[in-house]
Amino acid sequence: MTAIAHSDVLIIGAGISGISSAFHLQKHAPQASFEILERRDSIGGTWNLFKYPGIRSDSDMYTLGFSFRPWRDAKAIADAPSIMNYLHDAVRDGKLDKKIHFGKKVVEAKWSSADGKWFVTIEDGASGETEMRSCKFLHSCAGYYNYDKGYQPDFPGVENFKGPFVHPQFWPEDLDYSGKKVVVIGSGATAVTLVPAMAETAEHVTMLQRSPTYIVSRPSEDAFANITRKYLPARLAYGLTRWKNVLLGRFFFWLCRTRPDYVKRRLLEELPAQLPAGYDIEKHLTPTYNPWDQRVCLAPDGDFFSAICDGKAAIATDHIEAIKENGVQLKSGNFLEADIIVSATGLDLNFLGNIEVTVDNEPVEPANLLNYKGMMYSGIPNLVASFGYTNASWTLRCDLTSKYLCRLVNYMQRKNLSRVMPTPDMSQVEYEPLLDFSSGYVVRKSAELPKQGSIKPWVMYQNYIADIFLTRFSALQDGALKFTK
C-alpha cells in the first residue's frame, strides 16, 4: 500500500493569506512541516485571477502588504501587476517556492478522531487524477468567494444582446473596447475601477446602478510614506506608515459608526468641486445608507470623477427593464446604447472554497457553525481559516491568523496534544450574522454562512487593534477551546 504524504500543516491556497501562513510557520514554528496546495498555476489568488482593466487595490499597500515585508513602491494604491511582483518577491526571498504545489485542487477534507488527523483528497488539474494527503492542521487560505462563478442576476432578454456580455471575474484577454460604447452594470469597487480605466480608450462608458454608492477621491501616493522612506530605514518607515494608516482607518470607521450624519455630509461636500457644474449629486452619488454600512469605494487621484468631467463616462441611476440586442432598456423609458455590457454584479460567497468537509464521517453544515475569534469554527477540530476584514485591509487579519496558528501548533506540540476544537456553551451564546454588512454579496449568502456569537470569543470584531490582544496575548486555554491528548 502506498504511504500517504503527511504534513503538520496543509495550507490551501497560495494567495496573500497562504503566503502569510507559510512565512509565519517557517519563522515562528520551524519544527512544523508544511505544504501549500494551489489549484491554479500561479500564486496570487485574487490578484492572479482577475484580469479586468485597471484592477488595483482599494486598500493602501502599507496595510495590504505583509507585516514582515515593506512595500517600497511610490504608489500606495497599487495595480495588480505591482502586487503580483511583490508577492513573487516574497515567495522567492522566503524560499517558499518548493513548498507550493500548483494545479492541486482540494475537493474533500475528512477529520478522523481515531487517527487524530485530516485526510485530504486532492484533484490534479492536468490529469484529473486524485491523491490523498494527511495533516495534523488544515489552514484554509482559499478566500471567501467562488472562483468558478461570480454572481450573475438573470437579466431579462440578455440572450438577445449582440455584443460581448462580460463578467469581470472572467475577463476575455482579447476583448477590444477601443472606440466602443460600454455599459457597466453595478456600482461597487469593481465598477468604480473599471469605468475610468475603460474610458481611456472606449468611446463612452456608462455606470448603470440601481442606487448610489459612496465614492471618495484620495491620492494614489502616500506623502508621509514617501518622505519617511527617504530618511528612515525601510522597515521603520514602513512600520510607521502602516500604523498611521491603521489608526486613521480605525478612526474613520469609528466616526462612521458614531456620527454617520456628520461623515455623510463631509463626504458629499467633497463632490461638487470634482464634478461638472450642476451635476445631480443627490440622484447619482448620495446613498440611502450610512457610510461603512457597505464598503466605501475609492477613486485614486479622482480618476472616476475626471472621466465624468471629460465627458468619457456617466452614471445612470435606474432599473433594468430588459437587455436589447444593442443596449439596455431602462424602466424610466431611457435607453442606453451598448456595444459591450460588463456585469460587475459581485461575487458568489462560499465557505472554505466549497470543499466537502466531514468530521468523523458527519458532513459539516456551514450555517450551523459558530465563528471562534474570526478564524476557527465550532465542532471542527484542528482547522484554521483566514478571513480578512470588511472595513480594513485583508492582510492585517491574515497576518494575525497566521501567528495564532503558530501559537497553537507550538503549544500542542509542547503539551503533546493531538486535537483542539472550539466548543461553545450554547446556553450562554446567541447566534448573530457573521458580517454586520449590508452589501448585496454578503446579504445574499448570509443564511448559508457560519454565524458569530453574542459574546467573546465568538464575536468577529472587525477591529485590528482589539484582535491583536485577542489573538496574540490571550490565553489559549480559555474554556472555549477544548484540547485533547
Describe this protein's structure.
This protein is α/β, with parallel strands linked by helices and 485 residues long. The protein has 2 domains: 5-148 and 348-484, FAD/NAD(P)-binding domain (3-Layer(bba) Sandwich); 159-343, FAD/NAD(P)-binding domain (3-Layer(bba) Sandwich), CATH 3.50.50.60. Helix content is 28%, strand content 23%. It has helices spanning 16-28, 46-49, 61-64, 80-93, 189-199, 223-231, 234-258, 260-269, 281-285, 303-309, 394-414, 440-443, 464-473, and strands at residues 5-12, 34-38, 100-102, 104-112, 117-124, 130-140, 165-166, 181-185, 204-209, 215-218, 297-300, 313-317, 320-324, 327-330, 335-337, 340-343, 356-359, 362-363, 371-372, 376-377, 383-385, 419-422, 431-433, 451-453, 481-484. Strands 1, 2, 3, 4, 5, 6, 17, 18 and 21 form a 9-stranded mixed sheet that branches. Strands 7-16-8-9-12 form a 5-stranded parallel sheet. Strands 13-14-15 form a 3-stranded antiparallel sheet, with no helix packed on it. A hairpin with a 4-residue loop joins strand 4 (104-112) and strand 5 (117-124). The two termini are 28 Å apart.
